[in-house]
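JOB MANIFEST
job_type = single_chain_structure
chain_count = 1
residues = 233
[input]
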Amino acid sequence: MNKVDNFWEPGVSSGPCKVRNISRRHALITLAQLEQTYPDATCALRYVSPWQLLVATILSAQCTDTRVNLVTPALFARFPDPFSLVGAPLGAVEELIRSTGFFRNKAVNLLGCARAVVESHQGVVPQTLAELVALPGVGRKTANVVLGNAFAIPGMVVDTHVGRVARRLGWARSGQPQGVEKELCALLPKEKWTQTSHVLIWHGRRCCRAQIAHCSNCPVRERCPRTGVNRAK
């Protein structure tokens, strides 16, 4: 996985943790309650094309979606597609994305990604996981974001929020993103994968927070085993 697409959660072991067995029916009922709580849950990144979503997602590594949305308008105004980005000066790209953090590495990856999309895919963002993760700067998380949101192809995005909430709900055991992805995909029907990611991200940001879980306000507190919750209010 590329460095800028690494999304480990600090303090979480890569080994298995003990959770109780959760049935698909139980998980789907819990998911339905979360969907009712967050009916507007969707991708927070702003984009008008698959290419723009791909770029925005690469920039979002170790950066907030809000910050990315502030940066991308100027970036896309100057370099709106992979063809225009291929010949961009590295320094110009670095300056445009500086505030997203890790800007030098991200700029190199954006130029490499643009070149790969132009040379290998005729300037069209590919629509398979294998082809996407072969692009510079793209890991499984970024690939699944693009598949699920740009192409309506089910993809389970596992960021730090999804991993944390899934473990606390007892839906996953793994401390690794790819392991959580595999467990969630096995637990939930394929048509639920993309929206599950959105809902768990929203729940993780608003209620099931990393340092202190707001269990007293949780809409699914009666259905949650609170696995790994050390501090709650």
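[summary]
The radius of gyration is 18 Å.
The domain at 50-150 is CATH 1.10.340.30 (Endonuclease III; domain 1).
exit_status = 0
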